[in-house]
Design goal:
By secondary structure, this protein is mainly alpha-helical. The chain is 75% helix and 0% strand. It has 14 helices and no strands. The protein has helices at 13-49, 61-82, 93-98, 100-120, 126-133, 137-148, 154-170, 172-176, 187-211, 222-242, 245-256, 261-288, 291-312, 318-328. It is globular. The two termini are 16 Å apart.
């Protein structure tokens, strides 16, 4: 990536550095493939499930995301109890207290990023959602520099510039066509998506610092960090849901209707399963690489989603397709 993201060697560092490429290559490839497939899957599944004006009409974003977090926390705990036991032991109150500010920041980013993103999918087409999220490398690079002191080479900077310009051009379709596109776009939905993208950009930077033991603190391995993040986020989403009368009443009616009970339960568990795979792959991929690498890798996956979503949304003007090509390039 042409960056200075590699952590400094400690002790007899040269031997560690020499061994790292051989041991990390296959792991990076595995987690990137897992990350990619689950990323595409969760985007399309959520876009299909959360539309209020079309089947299945499951537009309860907070309740839906709450189950994602609870499921991920439980699954992470099962993994730690069985096959991925952390070197520092299972999550503990002492570990949580030591890293409480990092965990709180990561969890806040998760709530804003996932909650607002899923809420935006009830208001805007998947194409508009993905184009906004494609600009995440820019705030990630800024946050990495400000918080972690990371710098990146000219090649990465130019690539990020092309992504931003391409994303701006790609949005031309909705600026000029608007409601006639056949997929109404809500301004509030766009604002929520922008906020979610910024929060999603900050999260991997803070997570990377926590997993590498920044500021002299003990590092937290990916699986315990996922557990803390998902558990705290799940409780937060539960509180938000309990304070949202419209979602509470609507969810009760949806699950209480015999015609949609099975469908609703299926959507919850299918979405939660995909979300867990995505979350664990996200943490391991960020742990093995860098925050910006993970975000740019995520953009590589978005290429497929953006192109397919553009075709589905009827994007046909030259400016938008030039923008899409720039993002792809």
């Amino acid at each position: 990536m042409g960056s200075s993201d590699a952590p400094p060697a400690r002790g007899d560092g040269p031997s560690v550095v020499a061994q790292a490429p051989a041991s990390f290559t296959l792991a990076e490839a595995f987690w990137f493939c897992t990350f990619s497939i689950s990323n595409i899957g969760i985007n399309y599944f959520n876009s299909w499930a959360l539309k209020a004006d079309q089947a299945p009409g499951f537009h309860f974003a907070m309740f839906y995301t709450m189950f994602h977090m609870i499921f991920s926390a439980c699954a992470a705990l099962v993994l730690m109890l069985t096959c991925v036991r952390p070197e520092a032991g299972l999550p503990s109150w002492a570990q949580f207290c030591e890293a409480r500010w990092s965990i709180a920041a990561i969890s806040t980013c998760t709530v804003v990023a996932y909650g607002f993103n899923n809420l935006s999918l009830t208001m805007v087409p998947l194409f508009a959602n993905q184009i906004i999220k494609a600009t995440q490398p820019l705030p990630v690079a800024v946050f990495s520099y400000l918080l972690a002191g990371k710098t990146y080479g000219v090649g990465v900077q130019v690539s990020v510039g092309f992504i931003i310009v391409g994303s701006a051009l790609a949005s031309f379709h909705y600026l000029t066509v608007g409601e006639d596109s056949g997929a109404p776009t809500s301004f509030l939905g766009l604002v929520l998506c922008v906020i979610a993208a910024v929060a999603a950009a900050l999260k991997p930077v803070v997570a990377m610092m926590a997993m590498r033991g920044a500021d002299g603190k003990a590092r937290i391995e990916p699986t315990p960090l996922l557990f803390y993040d998902a558990a705290l986020s799940g409780v937060t989403f539960l509180i938000i849901w309990l304070c949202s009368p419209a979602e509470r009443v609507g969810m009760a009616a949806y699950l209480g209707d015999s015609a949609t009970t099975t469908l609703g339960i299926g959507i919850i568990f299918a979405g939660a399963s995909i979300a867990f795979v995505f979350n664990i792959a996200y943490y391991f991929f960020t742990h093995l690489t860098t925050a910006l690498t993970a975000t740019v890798g995520s953009n590589g996956v978005k290429v497929i989603t953006i192109v397919l979503a553009a075709i589905q949304s009827g994007v046909h003007d030259a400016a938008s397709w030039v923008g899409i090509v720039l993002v792809v390039a």
